[in-house]
Structures are given as C-alpha cells and as structure tokens.
C-alpha cells in the first residue's frame, strides 16, 4: 500500500502552519489539526531516511516501502501525541523501529541487515586509493555483520543516521548509559576485528 494511496493530499487546501515556522514540529502540530498538506511536506522531507532505516531491518525493498507508508499513516493518526521534548526525526525512527520489530517477530527473525553506508569516493582519489577504500568498506561490512543485533543497531543509528546518544536512547527505549556501553563495546570489537584483518588503528 503506497503512501499516496493511503493518504490523499487535498491539493486545494493551503498550509495551516505559520510561514515563519516551517519546522518539523510545526508541521506535526498542523497535522494534528488535520492539515494533509503539512503531512505531504513532512513525508517529502523524511520518507527516504525512514525507508533506509526500515530497509536495514527488513532486508526487503517492498516491505520497507510498505513500512514507510505505515509510519506516515501513524503520524497522521497520532500527531497530537507528539511531544516536543524530542526531535521529529527521532519520533519517526522510533515508530519505524517498533513496526519493523513487530514485522520481524511475525517472521520469527530479529536479524538486522548487514548493509552499511558505502564509502564515498573522493573525486581526487587515484585508482589505488579508491581500491583501498572499497576494500576497507568490504572488511568493515564483514566486521559489522559479526556484531550482535543490539550492537549493530547502535552503530547504525549513531554513525549512519547521525543520532545523538539521547536520541538513540529515545528510539530504542534504553537508558543513555546502556547506549554508551553498547557503543563502547561495539567500537572496541570492530577495532579488534579490523586489526585481525590487517587494518591497524581503525576508528569508527
């Protein structure tokens, strides 16, 4: 079920939020008041991020697309419950995570996808440097696949979705100290595995 089918946008309706405040929080407030155009704008800003996050869990593009639709349908239905104490993106990822875990439980599997962000090539890199980056990327992916699901989740949120410790705590529902501890051991373990593969002083 696609988002466009699930939530039709009333094209003749103008935005209800203030032109001076076009923030995510203002959009959610407008959505709570029934503004479908605000939902369309919020979807346009964040659906790719939600999709990539869902894809890491579900390992299936079609399922991830459906999950995005479900997340924004929930936003439409539950906007009045949003509390400004966290960022809207944190709220969206928390909704996506809960839905993805429920889906995985139905499939009797809670494995996170091993996919990680590709290393970005610098146009100035020569072929040798580019090859080294690709090799390091392959090694890093292999190392991440050996982490526990809980540790992979922390690395994914902190380094690839650029969430703060506090935001990760909100998303996965554990204390900040637990997040810090998991991140410490995940980084330590990755460093050990990279060193074992001949890459010294690797930091993530």
Describe the fold and architecture.
It is elongated and about 55 Å long. The protein is mainly α. The longest helix is centred in the N-terminal third of the chain and has 23 residues, at 36-58. Helix 8 packs across helix 9 (176-196). Mean pLDDT is 75; it is low at 4-15 and 108-123. The protein is built from nine helices and no strands.
Quick summary:
This protein is an all-alpha fold and 204 residues long. 65% of the residues lie in helices and 0% in strands.
Outline the secondary-structure elements.
Blueprint: H1 3-6, H2 24-32, H3 36-58, H4 61-78, H5 88-106, H6 127-145, H7 149-160, H8 165-172, H9 176-196
CATH topology of the largest domain: Rna Polymerase Sigma Factor, Chain: A
Q: Uncertain spans, ≥5 residues at pLDDT below 50? A: 4-15, 108-123
Q: Return the string of H and E elements.
A: HHHHHHHHH
Give the CATH level 1 class of the largest domain: Mainly Alpha
Tell me the helix content.
55-70%
Number of domains: 2
Radius of gyration: 19 Å
State the fourth-level CATH superfamily of the largest domain: RNA polymerase sigma factor, region 2, helix turn helix motif
Shape: elongated
CATH architecture of the largest domain: Orthogonal Bundle
Number of helices: 9
Entry keywords:
single chain, 204 residues, mainly alpha, Rna Polymerase Sigma Factor, Chain: A, Arc Repressor Mutant, subunit A, 2 domains
């Amino acid at each position: 079920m696609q988002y466009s089918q699930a939530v039709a946008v009333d094209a003749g309706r103008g935005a209800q939020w203030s032109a001076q405040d076009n923030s995510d929080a203002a959009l959610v407030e407008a959505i709570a008041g029934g503004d479908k155009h605000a939902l369309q704008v919020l979807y346009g800003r964040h659906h790719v991020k939600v999709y990539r996050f869902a894809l890491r869990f579900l390992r299936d593009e079609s399922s991830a697309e459906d999950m995005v639709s479900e997340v924004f349908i929930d936003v439409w239905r539950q906007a009045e419950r949003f509390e400004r104490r966290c960022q809207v993106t944190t709220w969206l990822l928390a909704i996506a995570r809960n839905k993805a875990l429920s889906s995985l439980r139905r499939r009797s599997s809670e494995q996170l996808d091993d996919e990680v962000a590709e290393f970005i090539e610098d146009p100035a890199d020569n072929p040798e440097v580019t090859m080294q980056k690709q090799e390091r990327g392959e090694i890093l992916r292999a190392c991440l696949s050996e982490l526990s699901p809980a540790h992979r989740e922390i690395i994914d949120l902190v380094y690839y979705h650029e969430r703060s410790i506090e935001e990760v705590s909100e998303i996965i529902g554990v204390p900040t100290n637990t997040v810090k501890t998991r991140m410490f051991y995940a980084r330590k373990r990755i460093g050990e595995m990279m060193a074992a593969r001949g890459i010294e002083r690797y930091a993530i």
